[in-house]
Amino acid sequence: MISSSLTQMTGHIPHYIVVIHGIGDKCDGFSEWLQGKIKSEFANTVLRISSNKPPEDAIHFCEALWYRVTQEDQDLLWDTVFPLMKTRSISKTELAKSPMSLLRRLKYMTFFRKLVVNFQGDIIAYIGSPGANKYRLIHDKIYQAFEACAKELFAKAATPQSPVLLTVVGHSLGAVIASDILYDALVKRTRWWPPQLRLANMMSLGSPLALYKLRYGSETDSFTKTITMQDQNGRWINFYDPQDIVGYPLRGLNETYQNAVYHDKEISVGQWWNPWHFILRSTPFNHNLYLKDRTVAKAIGWKAALDWLQTNRPDLELMLKSEYEHYDQWVKKTGNWFSSIISGRNMG
Asked: CA torsion sign, 281 to 251 to 64 to 86?
C-alpha cells in the first residue's frame, strides 16, 4: 500500500465531465444536483479502492449551455403570436396585478404550448434552416466546453500518451447533439480535437437519438456510422425509462449501434421518496428526472473514479481489472423491479 495520501498528490491528471442539457430554457446550473452526487460517488470509490481520498481537483465539471441559441427566437415568436400574453412565463407579482392573465393562459393551454415551443422549436432549429445556421451555432456553444478543457490541459501533466479522460453526459436532445459533435471531431475530423484529451465515456440520458434514423430511411446501409470510445475501457451507456416517451434504446437499431453502445440501461428515474418524483416517475412527464436520479449519478461517478485511478495509479492495474468487471456486471443488472416482473427477467 502506498502510504502517502492522494490528497497530497501533485501532478495528477484529472477526469473531465462535460454535461450537455436537453430541450428547455433557463438551463444555467441544471446539473448541480447530479454533480454533487457524482462527486460523492467518485470520492467514495477512490477511497474504497486506494484507501486514500482523491485530490479536491481530481474531477472537473463543465456545463455546456446552448439554450440561448434558440431561446431568443422562441420568445420572439411567442410574443408575436400571443401579444396579450407577453413572455411565456409570468411572475406571481404580475399575476396578482392582472388575475385575468391566468384565465387567458389557462384558456390557451399556455403551459403545454410552452412545452411544444421548447420541444418542437429546438428540434426544428437544430435540424437545419434556410436562415441562421442554428446547427452550427449550437455546436459552437458545445465545443466551447471542450476547448475550455483543452486550455486547462496545458497546465496538467497530460500528454497524448497519458491523456486526460473525458466523460460526456448528454440529456435528451443534448445526447443527440453530443453524438453529432463528437462524430464531427473524432470520425469525420472536421473539427480539431486536442490529442491530450481522450473520450472515455458517453452517458446518454433519455435520448431520442433512435428517432433520427427516420431521416435516413429503412435501408440496411443507412445510419451505420457513429462514435466509438477512444479509451480501451470506454463505455457508452444509454439510460432510458419505459415511461419516458422521449427516451429510446439504441442497441437494437443495427449492428453498428449494437457494437458502439455498451448497454441500454432501463431504469425508473427519479427519487421514490420524493412525493413530486413519485407522482411523475410513472408518467410521460418524468423526462427531466434523469438529472435527479441516483442510479445515473452512481454510474457516472463510479466509472469516472475507475478511469481516474487507471490514469493516476498504474500500480492498481490488477485490482482495477476486477473493478471494471464488477462495474460492468452492475450496469447490466436490471434495476427496474417492475419491468423485470413484466418481462420475466431475473434481477440477479
From this structure: negative
How far apart CA 84 and CA 71 sit, in angstroms, is 19
DSSP state of 264: E
**Which residues, in sequence order, are bridge partners of residue 191?**
none
Written as one letter, the residue type at 48 is: R
55-72 pLDDT tens trace: 999 999 999 999 989 888
Angle CA 23–26–27, to nearest 5: 60
SS3 144: helix
Who contacts 130 (Cβ-Cβ below 8 Å, separation ≥6)? none
Cell of 49: 479502492
Residue (of 194, 201, 203, 140) closest to 166 by Cα position: 201
Give the cell for residue 159: 500528454
User: Across the strands, what pairs with 202?
Assistant: 168, 236
Evaluate whether 307 touches 16 at the Cβ level (below 8 Å). no
Q: SS3 of 291, please?
A: helix
DSSP H helix total and E strand total for the chain: 12, 6
- Phi/psi of residue 32, nearest 5 degrees: -60, -45
Task: Please return the burial class of 197, using the count of CB atoms within 10 Å of its CB with bins 0-12, 13-18 and 19+.
Answer: buried
Biggest CA–CA distance in the chain, Å, is 70
pLDDT, mean of residues 181-196: 92
**Residue 334, class by beta-carbon neighbours within 10 Å (0-12 exposed, 13-18 middle, 19+ buried)?**
middle
Does the pTM surpass 0.90? The reply is no
First and final C-alpha spacing in the chain? 33
Sheet (strand 235-240) strand order: 59-64, 15-20, 164-171, 197-205, 235-240, 263-266
Q: What is the tens place of the pLDDT at every residue in 151-188?
A: 887 777 778 888 899 999 999 999 999 999 999 999 99
Pairwise CA distance, residues 291 & 309, whole Å? 25
Degrees (nearest 5) of the Cα angle 284, 290, 292?
A: 120
The SS3 assignment for 310 reads: helix
**Which residue is associated with the grid cell 469525420?**
188
